[in-house]
Each structure stands twice: as structure tokens, then as C-alpha cells.
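Morning - fe (ii) ion inputs below, output right after.
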Amino acid sequence: MFFPRTSFVFYFLLLAFEMENFPSIGALVKENAQLAEMLHQMGIRFYQEADKTLEQACREKGIDPAKVYQHFDLLRKNQDFDLTQLSSYPIEILVSLLRHSHQLFIKQKLPFLFHTIEEMDENRFFKPELARDLKMVFPIFAEDFIKHIYEEEDTLFGYIQYLLECTKEIKNQGKLYFLLTTKGIRTFAMHHEAHDNEISGIRSLTDDYSLPPDADLFTFILYRELQDFEKQLRQHALIENNLLFPKALRLENEVRWRLDQIRLQN
Ligand SMILES: [Fe+2]
Ligand SMILES: [Fe+2]
């Protein structure tokens, strides 16, 4: 391929300009660890491309850097829930919001943490034995957590959806009676509490995510992302325990009352 000499000069000048004026990926992720997770999704590993600028790495992968910034903005906006504001939302909206968070956990957060831990060079980690423990414990945690999510999606959310349909019309009294007596929101809620602290094992392994004073970029991002994941899980569980279950209980009582009324009339 023919490149005019001036193009080369221009390209290297541009590169030098970028190197000098734009922060490196290493500096960017250090400022906001969640960017590392988003770049991972786009095939850019923060620990392999730490010295490049975001623009350089994006250009090499054929990605528009503006899109990366846009996605990042959306990701940040999606993270902080205001519980008071959410409490006024109908149960259908809460369920779709929780479903959306499940998708983010499964498609973004878990793969990022899973691959980062898997690719971690234990001999270069500040505590090799901790790296080995994380490599062993995290996949077990991830598997349990994915099961938890699918159980909620298939059983709890499915049950809530069915209850919502029954507020309009009860098509099958026998089925509804069976579900009300065998499933029951109270049972879900009691079972749910037991899952709340699944990540606490990882927190204690990392000594509450305490970073060594001379932490390298890899450790810094890994710990910040684990900590952020735990924060998101806690927020998620708060929405489920404090908002979803009380609303679902009220919905269940309403449907039970409607069923009783139909039975009394017959
Ligand atoms: Fe959930
Ligand atoms: Fe949950």
C-alpha cells in the first residue's frame, strides 16, 4: 500500500500529540474503574493497552471513541438508584428494572471479573496465594449467583407476572389456588435473605478490598471493580427486599381476596 511521506509525518505527529494531550487508558481506568469493564466488553483489555490512549486503542479495534464515552455515560447513569423515588414505581417497572440489572450483571460485570481473575498472573500478584484463592472461589460464586438470577427470573418474576394477570381476570382458579398455597411471596422472601451475602466470602478474602500502598494498576482495578460489584449487589438486594417483596405481598393479598370473592359467589 502506498503512503505519501507527508501522511506518515502527519500520522506520527497526531500520535505524538495524542500521547501528550490525552490520558492513557491506565490513567483513565484508574480514575474510573468501571471503564475497564466496559472496554473489556469491546475487546480492549486495560492491562494490555494501559499505555495507549483510548482513541488509539479504539482506532486499532475499529471502534468509534465517541460511542465508548456515550456507553460509559449510560452505564454510570444506570448505577445509582434512588430508593425513595423507586418506591413510587409500580411493581411492573420494578421487575423490568431488576431484569435489566440482571442482564448487566450477566453480560458485563461477571464476564469482566471472571476473565480478569482468570487471566491474572498469580506470581506477579502482590499475594500469590490470594490470587490462587480468588481463581478458585470466584467461579463458584459466579455459578451460584447466575443460578440465583435465573431462579428469580423463572419463578419469582414469572409468579408476579401471573398475579398481575389475575388482577384483570382469573382464568384458572385451580391453578391460582395451587400457586398461592405452594409458591407464596413469603417463601420467596425468606429464601432470598439467605442469598444476600454471597459475595461476603470474596470481601473477607481480600480483607475488605484493602489495597496495598503500592498497588499496581491490575490490583487497583480488580479491587475497585469487586467493591463496586458488591455495592451494586447490595443496592439490587435492597430493591428486592425493601420494595419488590412488600409490593408483591400486597399484590398477592389482592389476588387472594379476589379469588375468595369468586368462590363465595359460587
Ligand atoms: Fe435479582
Ligand atoms: Fe436476588
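Note: The pocket of fe (ii) ion (ligand 2) is lined by residues 148, 152, 192, 195, 237, 240 (CB under 6 Å).

O.
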